[in-house]
Amino acid sequence: MAIPDYQTLMLPVLRIAAKGETRVPEVAEKMADELGLAPDEREEMLPSGRQRVLHNRIHWAKFYMTKAGLIDSPARGRFVASEAGRELLASNPTRLDTRMLMDYPGFREFYESSHSKGSSNDRVSDREPAIVVDETETPEEQIEAAYRSLNAALRADLLDRIRENSPAFFEKLIVDLLVAMGYGGSHKNAAEQLGRSGDGGVDGVINEDRLGLDRIYVQAKRYAEENTICRPAVQGFVGSLVGFGATKGVFVTASTFSSGAVSYAKNLPQRVILIDGNRLADLMIEHGVGTRPHRTIQVQRLDEDFFSEDG
């Protein structure tokens, strides 16, 4: 089954915490067993790859209940149900979520202050929160979802602009990208290498490293979105590699490859990498080619070591 959202996890987490002091990893293991999560679901990571999804959602469920006074933290990294939390459980609730937590003054004060768009002096103490309290995603998940949405829009914009420009511009773009990724030595040398072939099914060759110990042959096709590159085109490129005695090639397009072309490239003695439009745009974003930073948001975390008085 899918991992429940953090609000759905609140009540189960509180029940476990009512049995004694515990930690997020311990609760995660118990919850995974109770929910019957598959091994891959237990290990599922946030898109950033920095934390397991289940751990993240349990953390936020615990954090919000702490703000409501339902959970106490007697020691670093450990938590337990408070007297208020035990009283709530005694009433046999069927669900616990942020909307119910708004009945607790501590959580309401925290929520209104953290969601206010103005300063604390501008707030009216009895006004309703600016944001609805029925979100199902944790703050990290909301940030990463917004990041993915922005990148998806940027990817589409990049591909539109690429297709509006000439094939010569596309080849220059490939040079810029390969150099940004660490290939080709200097930009001047890379441009010379990529621009000199143009025959035999190969648009150019670029050094794999600065010393030129190995070389990569490149085919660049700036096709319209609807023009899928099929297996024969990739076969022609591979034939050219054989003719040059090459073992490595990169076929780049602004469109897509057919499933037959992809399957063919996977089973070759030569190492041939196919880069379609979406992957090309992702690499451009990753290496800052054709893009530039617009806004940087740094998310700080508590430094537990700073507050440790041990030793």
TrEMBL record:
Keywords: Endonuclease, Hydrolase, Nuclease. GO terms for biological process: DNA restriction-modification system. The keyword DNA-binding does not apply. Residues 6-90 form the Restriction system protein Mrr-like N-terminal domain. It holds the Pfam family Mrr_cat. GO terms for molecular function: DNA binding; restriction endodeoxyribonuclease activity. Residues 162-284 form the Restriction endonuclease type IV Mrr domain. PANTHER family: MRR RESTRICTION SYSTEM PROTEIN (PTHR30015), TYPE IV METHYL-DIRECTED RESTRICTION ENZYME ECOKMRR (PTHR30015:SF7). This is Restriction endonuclease. It comes from Rhodobium orientis. The lineage of its organism: Bacteria, Pseudomonadati, Pseudomonadota, Alphaproteobacteria, Hyphomicrobiales.
